[in-house]
């Protein structure tokens, strides 16, 4: 209980950081994992729009057609409940990861982190290492500095432009997008969205960077409610490291001093500029770069590694794990049931309200109905239209309605009553019958 109170006590400890953060490029196991995972996720993001399935783009948010194509499945506005299930499942998975492993999502898989990592990598390749960037920042403005920084920002804008175009290919067929782009036929509307997302990426990953994690992301604020003494977090082992003081390599460890050599590398490599030795802070994104830096120093001094490590104060009780996994399992089952039972055809009928009825040449009364039918399957279908349990009412037009795969049609249907029909308002049930489907819709027949 005391350890938990200690964790909660330091969670709101603020970081002592400068307005301008220049991080030191770090190598190590954690950094390699971040880069490999970021590369895989980036390739998935870039390559997904180019995947084709049955001659169509496999993943496409077609706003104009109001369709979300996911391989053989096409979702429509009537199927938006899918997002509720997916968001709930994703939220509780994130809660589980946060309760068990802290901000692991932030450090390894968040798009903000991945693009910031790419921008940082580009900055190191162009501007040089940590010391060079420090000298350039503190030195006089020179022609070399202007050229180098201009090249960096041009590179950032190029990455942001490619990101924006790739993002747009999720909403526009990729072939048409690139053909229009390179032929100069892309409309102003598309260019407007491309420029908007390009600037958003450039500003967010190039300028905002760690400020997004520190000030704007709500996740960093509410994560404190999920962290307990059985949560694995990146932390400094103060009992082993303190009191800390500088020393020389190969020098015998001074008496009464801890293992921390006060090199400040853990601060220099931190993307959000915090000092992990001050205790757990909400700005920490659990990227593990301080672990790599500290292990590197411990290896030089022949000290045991793990002065900074990712660990929990005690073993997990598994109660919260079971609860989160249970909730996720329940919603996955509910989602599967809903998805399996969702209607494959949407049928709506609207009675013509401008003309409630009209009289035909032979004196019989006609009503006009507008049918809107949507086929959500890739197969064509033919519906036979009939009136259920009412032999007096007769369908004059459109007894058969044919739809291709994923097609939507609006069909006008005339229904006629006999001359001796004496009911002023009669409920009518339309029956649409296909090979494997039976759909009924209710309406009303109006007589004079």
From TrEMBL:
Q: Which residues, if any, are the signal sequence?
A: none
InterPro entries per UniProt: 4Fe4S_Fe-S-bd (IPR017896), 4Fe4S_Fe_S_CS (IPR017900), Cyt_c_oxidase_cbb3_FixG (IPR014116), Electron_Trans/Redox (IPR051684), FixG_C (IPR032879), Ig-like_fold (IPR013783)
Recorded hits in PANTHER family, A to Z, give: FERREDOXIN-TYPE PROTEIN NAPH
| Protein name (record) | Cytochrome c oxidase accessory protein CcoG
Q: Which domain of life is it from?
A: Bacteria
What NCBIfam families does the entry give? Answer: ccoG_rdxA_fixG
Q: Does the keyword Transport apply?
A: yes
Sorted alphabetically, the keyword list is: 4Fe-4S, Electron transport, Iron, Iron-sulfur, Membrane, Metal-binding, Transmembrane, Transmembrane helix, Transport
The record's Pfam families line, in alphabetical order, gives: Fer4_18 (PF13746), FixG_C (PF11614)
Q: Spell out the PROSITE patterns in the cross-references.
A: 4FE4S_FER_1, 4FE4S_FER_2
Q: Where are the transmembrane segments?
A: 36-53, 80-99, 156-178, 190-208, 321-340
Q: Where is the 4Fe-4S ferredoxin-type domain?
A: 252-279
